[in-house]
Amino acid sequence: MRGxxxxxxxxKLAALMQLSDFDYNLPDELIAHYPAENRSASRxxxxxxxxxxxxxxxxxxxxxxxTSDDLLVFNDTKVLPAxxxxxxxxxxxxxxxxxxxxxxxxxxxxxxxxxxxGAGTRINVKSASCDGVLEIEVTGRQDAFFKIRFDSSRxxxxxxxxxxxxxxxxxIDRQDEPEDQTRYxxxxxxxxxxxxxxTAGLHFDEPLLDALRDKGVDMAFITLHVGSGTFQPVRTDxxxxxxxxxxxxxxxxxxxxxxKACRARGxxxxxxxxxxxxxxxxxxxxxxxxxxxxxYQGETDIFIYPGYEFRVVDAMITNFHLPRSTLMMLISAxxxxxxxxxxxxQAIKERYRFxxxxxxxxxx
Length: 364
Hints:
Layout: E1 5-6, H1 11-15, E2 43-47, E3 54-58, H2 62-65, E4 71-75, E5 77-79, E6 83-88, E7 93-101, E8 106-113, E9 122-126, E10 133-142, E11 145-150, H3 156-163, H4 180-183, E12 191-194, H5 206-215, E13 218-224, E14 247-251, H6 253-264, E15 269-272, H7 274-284, E16 296-300, E17 303-304, E18 315-319, H8 326-334, H9 337-349, E19 360-363
Parallel strand pairs: 1-17, 2-19, 4-13, 4-15, 5-12, 15-18
Antiparallel strand pairs: 2-3, 6-7, 6-9, 7-8, 8-11, 9-10, 10-11, 13-14, 14-16, 18-19
Helix pairs in contact: 8-9
């Protein structure tokens, strides 16, 4: 599914397409460099789209905000230890960020080096935790990425577990630490393939999930393997000219059936994170406008910004996003931009913690 961009073109909405419309000033000290001590102890800002009202809560209060008719939709991707640090055989330092595994011994990746490596370049990666060297060969290019091959009889997943580092976002200005192995993962992640966490899900712990189940809140799981492109800045002033990166999604028949049942009982489809939003709305674009959601597995580069008409999602849980990012545009399509900017201003005033390891919003 390539190049999906949906936006209104009338008056006010058409004018709201400049990158600067999604900017705000954030004090550096509000960027969270470490997670909260307990996942569900994060703060939760609630935004009511009908009234624009903002209220402040603990994330555990989500239990009181949902009803037994509602459906939570989670992204069950699991983050790969996708960052590899090594040297060329010629001696130069090199950093590899896996974008996607292609097979048991091949991948595409971003490579950072003093000189761009050509096909045939060999790289040695050492493990920080044990002896051994992983040998990698650059085999060519694929679009903006490098194709690499692991010279080992072991699977790429095994090799990354031994030699890889957790790919913390660039705004977390520190090296990864042992705690990140678990805290930069959701507790329900089970499908390895992401190089960034679906961060809204980081706030859920097992006691909260159990309490939600006991209340009768239903749960469905989709998969979107988050790519490194999620951190790529928008470089065009006219946001309609921006091209989204492509990511792999799987919206299963089971998830579609649960959404249909939720609709039938009058509940809300509550997407946990923008990745769940993008997956559900991508699948919806493949269906007739008056039909039920159907399963979809494949690529998506859907770009959602103001003017988009949501077909599946009724409410969303999301973290606070970077200024001028496509995720700011997505939530500004779900609630109006003025409401989002006001909510962010209040979050800054109240000293919420921002970005991947930060606090959350519930937009209903």
